[in-house]
Amino acid sequence: MPSPGTQSAPLHILTDPGHGGTDPGAVCGGVKESGVNLAVATRLSAMLEESGHRAAMTRITDRTVPLRERVRMERNGNYDLLVSVHCNAAENPSARGMEIWTSPGQTRADAAATAIFNALQKAFGRALPMRMDLSDGDPDKEARFYMLTHSRCPAVLIELGFLSNTQDREFLTDPENQTDIAAVIAEGIEGWGRGRGRVNYEG
Ligand SMILES: [Zn+2]
Question: Model-level pTM greater than 0.85?
Fold first, then answer.
């Protein structure tokens, strides 16, 4: 029996590897965003299940899944959190770093985003810059991304880094780093699941 307070109730998480199939997302230096997203999300999903949670994915192979179909999956399940996984790309090759997005305003996703952000910053803050917007008191950035505004459950979108930046691209395509990133995101999600209330930015 786990001692009380150390084990959270199992979470039901939907991971959403962005793009896939005919839509590769960003393509830089021969690397497709869709592949990196899938590699990290697959590991994340497996790790959550190994820790006793329930995890599903919007795609498990390199196939085309329209956004409205992904949202339909979310609405047909009873999820605690949607985690969309993407990589960035920019014209400026020196742009790099991780970002977490939620939909605008105070949302139920803010605490989850902050918990994941804290975990990522602690683990990778030295290797990868963390790009954040602290103007509203938490580090997540806000935008009306389709997956974020159309989901019923709290939803966060993680931009793992910039494929247009050589350092980020090398970091994100390393399978060991992909495993580490997934483990840290899982740790953040589990920390949020245990608290379920306020999570303060620890930066
Ligand atoms: Zn993307």
Answer: yes
Cα 174 to middle of ligand 1, angstroms = 18
Cα dihedral 116, 58, 40, 133, rounded to 10, equals: -30
- For residue 71, the CA-to-ligand 1 centroid distance in Å is 16
Distance 160 CA to ligand 1 centre (A): 10
Could you give all domains of the chain from N- to C-terminal order, each with its CATH number? Answer: 12-195 (3.40.630.40)
Model pLDDT for residues 50-79, shown as the tens digit of each residue: 999 999 999 999 999 999 999 999 999 999
Going from the Cα of 7 to the center of ligand 1, the distance in angstroms, rounded, reads 33
Residue 1 Cα to ligand 1 midpoint, Å, equals: 41
- Tokens matching residue 54: 């329930």
**What is the mean predicted confidence (pLDDT) over 75-93?**
96
**169 and 26 Cβ atoms separated by less than 8 Å:** no
Residue 85 near residue 186, CB atoms below 8 Å: no
DSSP 155-188: EEEEEEEETTSHHHHHHHT-HHHHHHHHHHHHHH
Distance of CA 171 to the CA centre of its chain: 16
